[in-house]
Design goal:
Layout: E1 2-6, H1 10-19, E2 24-28, H2 31-40, E3 42-46, E4 51-53, E5 56-58, E6 69-72, H3 79-85, H4 87-90, E7 94-97, H5 104-108, E8 115-119, E9 122-128, E10 131-137, E11 141-145, H6 152-163, E12 168-170, H7 174-195, H8 205-224, H9 234-248, H10 255-262, H11 272-282, H12 287-299
């Protein structure tokens, strides 16, 4: 089995490290990470185990290369660009999105006939070039044929992840899982970045009131999109967020905050921005999500 990970940042390199123990893996990553990996390997620490992994790190992927799976783990704003640059490879592989937000799988489906959606709610922090620390895990990785079902390619990928020692589950409705993760990100990611606090502090009554409104709007949009979620209504999800998800990720800092600090663009257009965009399509007002989108874009305007 041969796997290519495109846009391998902290998530992609960590996945590659685990998969490299059971199959052949190439990673396309930033040149500074590739240089370190080629010299001394990729260092992973934390809840996924500690080790140094001699990955095959590339800064370009030859178009003639063939892979069984291409996993895209890049920031969502890079999805189209990556697909265009590697469309010859993607056309011959099962392509997997392990990304934040809504809309990635739809883009990928223009380049591959086999699209696998995925969700991962695990915290990763950079500790240096080609050094990542896995901090928290709020649930299993979920993989499934997009938008729903499980075909042979998805089943084999789940098996591969399990062999690599990853906490993974097959999903017959991955679109629902993607929306469920987006709710979590809508609630915590931009607020954590704007206020520069870990997720646990967002349970304070003043910020919780904002979260209630964010999730209320997102649920209205999901109903118009006819998405079946694991929760019957917004209040059910808010209870789950407060009692389950926030406690296990209380010390985690927003990925948007990390992007802003590094001068990178954020994924806001695929998270809260997706809610506002779809809200306009369906005539659903999303003023609180609109406000956070504008605030994040103001903060990161120099990126």
């Amino acid at each position: 089995m041969k796997v290519l990970i495109l846009g391998a940042g902290a998530v992609g390199l960590s996945i590659a490290a685990r998969l490299s123990t059971v199959c052949s893996v190439d990673v396309l990553c930033r040149p500074r990470h590739a240089a370190v990996i080629q010299e001394r390997g990729f260092e992973l620490t934390g809840i996924w185990g500690d080790g140094v992994f001699p990955l095959s790190a590339l800064t370009e992927v030859p178009a003639e290369n063939r892979y069984d799976y291409c996993i895209i783990s890049a920031k969502s704003q890079s999805t189209r660009e990556l697909c265009e640059a590697h469309k010859a490879i993607l056309a011959k592989a099962a392509v997997v999105s392990l990304q934040n937000g809504i809309g990635n799988e739809e883009i990928i489906s223009e380049y591959s006939s086999t699209v696998i959606g995925g969700t991962i709610i695990t915290g990763f922090e950079w500790r240096g070039d080609a050094q990542v620390h896995a901090t928290v895990e709020a649930g299993p990785i979920r993989l499934g044929t997009f938008p729903n079902g499980m075909d042979q390619a998805a089943e084999q990928l789940v098996t591969l992840f399990k062999q690599a020692g990853l906490n993974v589950e097959a999903s017959n409705n991955i679109q629902s899982n993607i929306w469920a993760k987006t709710l979590y990100n809508c609630a915590l990611n931009p607020l954590g970045a704007i206020l520069d606090v870990p997720y646990g502090e967002l349970a304070h009554p003043t910020t919780w009131h904002i979260i209630e409104q964010l999730i209320g709007e997102a649920f209205q949009v999901s109903q118009q999109e006819q998405i079946t979620l694991p929760w019957q209504n917004a209040q059910e999800y808010l209870t789950y967020l407060q009692e389950v998800q926030i406690p296990v990720t209380a010390e985690h800092h927003s990925s948007m905050l990390q992007d802003i600090r590094r001068g990178y663009t954020t994924e806001i257009d695929f998270i809260n921005g997706a809610i506002t965009r779809l809200g306009k399509t369906h005539g659903v007002a999303t003023p609180v999500n609109d406000t956070l989108v504008n605030q994040i874009k103001f903060i990161s305007r120099g990126s």
